[in-house]
Write a structure and sequence with these properties.
Number of strands: 6
Low-confidence stretches: none
Helix content: 25-40%
Radius of gyration: 16 Å
Order of helices and strands: EEEEHEEHH
Strand order of the largest sheet: 1-2-3-4-6-5
Amino acid sequence: MTNTIGAYKVNNKLPGEGEAYAARSSRGTACVVRRLEKPVDGDWHDAEKEIAAIAAIGHDSIRPFDDCFVHQGRLAIVLIDREGVSLDELLASTGSGQLDSSACWYVVHRVAAALNQAHLVTDANDDYLTVCHGYL
């Protein structure tokens, strides 16, 4: 594993699909750096649209966009890490791996509100930006 991606110091690889790393910016800000494979057709257009959508969302349950650059021929997207407890940590803290109904409703509300805001993002022409979640 590389120790840096661009100007970001990598702490560790994050679990899950794709290539994502917990990192720190040169300012010391905690962030997530995702490296994307180049699309088969070589066109980054869809990724650029999703990056624009993420940058425009501004919902406190969605990591804000910070930076984007090419690293070793792959697109690197940097999202600011949010303080707080992940869903995995929340489930582990219950002992049973299950949330009570009020916690479930809270999580559902936060996710629904974030998705709603994400799908209302428009471009400069007031056309809705399609967010297919394929890149981010």
